[in-house]
Write a structure and sequence with these properties.
The structure is a homodimer of 139-residue chains. Chain A is mostly beta strands and 139 residues long. Helix content of chain A is 9%, strand content 32%.
Chain lengths: 139, 139
């Protein structure tokens, strides 16, 4: 017997659908209580505060930035969200106590150079990877 | 005049030092109150629960896993921590209210294939990227 064609969802892109196009699961999803969405924040790291000026010659510190904010469903396209993060935030909506939201973390990092004394007292200039947050997203 | 040589830290690797080798900043850093460290947790995502069986033919769901747990200083080597995460958790120790801890997020994801109806009712088999958490870390 010919299987009746099932009613289809209006799915245009090949990406996972966002909740606002999912009939029947969520009627009304708001940003949770106006808390700030995931974004990059200023953070100057002072090597003096860290007590590192014993071995770090330069710089005295640098702008490292950090990521903080809500990753609430539906995840905006600017949240750099992975498919997994979209699914996790959907599941979080259904089981908030069992599964956490996706978290706001760096999605792009860059290096910074540090001049320092090594263990043999040589002066070394080294490029340290993943020191500066360039972009944040929900992961 | 010859500049007196400054007292050097015992720095072997070219990675940023972990706090336990930093004299004078932190005397005693414990895991915070025995909370679980960042790690991967089981999570089966059911497409039925998501109400997607209207357009997803197979599978009925899949093991997506998720990341959760503490990213407290000092970050263990198995935390896959970036240099930025190490620095952020150090700064968090000094200014816990100003800067959050690094967050426990996926560091490795893999794809999974889904058979579904597209918007023109064609049956499509597509490999969706970043659907399954393979490893977690502090970022």
């Amino acid at each position: 017997a010919v299987r009746p064609l099932r009613r289809r969802q209006p799915k245009k892109s090949n990406e996972l659908p966002q909740a606002n196009r999912l009939p029947g699961i969520f009627d009304d999803v708001r940003g949770s209580h106006g808390r700030q969405v995931c974004r990059r924040h200023e953070l100057y790291v002072s090597f003096q505060d860290l007590g590192w000026l014993d071995w770090v010659i330069a710089p005295q510190g640098y702008s490292a930035y950090y990521c903080e904010g809500e990753c609430s469903f539906p995840l905006d396209s600017c949240m750099n969200a992975t498919n997994h993060a979209i699914l996790q935030s959907l599941v979080h909506l259904m089981k908030p106590n069992a599964v956490p939201k996706a978290c706001c973390a760096p999605t792009k990092l860059s290096a910074t150079s540090v001049l320092y004394y090594d263990s043999s007292n040589n002066v070394i200039l080294r490029k340290h990877r993943n020191m500066v947050v360039k972009a944040c997203g929900c992961h």
